[in-house]
Design brief:
mainly alpha; 5 helices; 77% helix; 0% strand
Length: 142
């Protein structure tokens, strides 16, 4: 069986999460995030550093959306899953992926990298929001 993957939805999820990341780590939580990371906000990265960071982020967003789309599509083969309301699909996909994959890594940063709980909240909140956005796009465009 072939998995029903909508590549347009993947591209839209990549763009949406790129914008979400900008909003999350700039106007919404940028100052708090920079303080928790120990960054000096007066020091601006060079254009090359910004371009490199953005390219890496787009690649990461693409890989996440591509794999997430496949994961979500694979669940459609489970009996009864297609009867679930779309919001249930979105919430199940995002929350369980966040809970099983993203949150443990974010907790590891607190435990092993000595990152603060405030930084944990900012980062793990973004990861959950990112998954919710991607799941909504991938579900409604399926």
């Amino acid at each position: 069986m072939e998995l029903p993957i909508n590549y347009t939805a993947i591209v839209i999820a990549v763009v949406a999460n790129f914008v979400l990341g900008f909003l999350w780590y700039t106007p919404l939580f940028g100052n708090a995030w920079a303080k928790e990371m120990g960054f000096d906000r007066s020091v601006k990265p060079s254009g090359g550093e910004m371009a490199k960071g953005m390219i890496i982020m787009v690649i990461g967003n693409f890989l996440m959306a591509y794999v997430f789309a496949h994961n979500m599509a694979a669940w459609t083969f489970v009996p009864g899953m297609n009867e679930m309301p779309k919001i249930g699909t979105i919430m199940n996909s995002a929350i369980f992926t966040w809970l099983g994959f993203y949150m443990p890594i974010d907790l590891g940063a607190v435990a092993w990298e000595k990152k603060s709980w405030k930084l944990f909240g900012i980062n793990t909140g973004y990861h959950l929001a990112m998954l919710l956005v991607a799941a909504a796009i991938l579900t409604y465009m399926a």
